[in-house]
Amino acid sequence: MIHVAQAIIVEGKYDKIKLSSLLDAVILTTNGFHIFHDAEKMALIRYYAKTTGIIILTDSDTAGFRIRNYLKGAVHDGKLFHVYIPDIYGKERRKLKPSAEGKLGVEGIDKNALLAAFEKAGVLTDEIPEKTDPITKYDLYELGLSGGADSKSKRKALQKRLHLPDLLSTASLLEVLNTMMTKTELCRILDELSSGAE
Known about the structure:
Blueprint: E1 2-3, E2 7-10, H1 13-20, E3 23-24, E4 27-29, H2 39-51, E5 54-56, H3 62-74, E6 80-82, H4 111-121, H5 137-142, H6 151-161, H7 170-180, H8 183-194
Parallel strand pairs: 1-3, 2-4, 2-5, 5-6
C-alpha cells in the first residue's frame, strides 16, 4: 500500500474504491456536481488544503474539468496539487455504454497508469505499515462524542481545539480524526479539554 500524505478529491464512489485499493490516503468524493452545493464537504476540503494539502483527481472529460476548476477557485488557502489522468477511450466494465465523450474515468484507468499520473505530479511516498490504533464509531460513543446528551457540545469543543470546520458531521469528524491521531492521542486531548487545559 502506497502512502499519500495529501487528501485526494475524486468525483464518485467508484473512483474512491479504485484508489483505496492502491493508496493509503484520505479520499473524499465530490459526488459529481453536488459539491457545488455541499458546504460541509467544501469546509472539509478547505481544511485539508490548509493542513495536509489536497490532490484533485477528476475525470479528463468536460464535467471533470468543470469540477476541478470549481475546486481550484473555491480553495484559496493551502496547498493544491493536480493529478491528471490520460485521455483513454473506452467503457468502464460496470457501465452499459461509454460516457458522453467516450473517455475512461478514474475508475476505469489501469493501476499502473494511475500510479504514473501520481508520480508525474510528484506526490507519491514510500509504503507504510497499516495503522494499528484506529478510532472507531464505538470509540466516539464511549468517549461521549456521539449518542449522549452533551455529545454535540463535546464535539464542538474538540473541533475548536483542533481548528476543524464547525460544519463537520460525526462521520466526517471520525474520518478526520483518523488522519490526525491515534485513539490514545484523542483520549489525551479529551482529558485535557475536560480538565480545562488549553
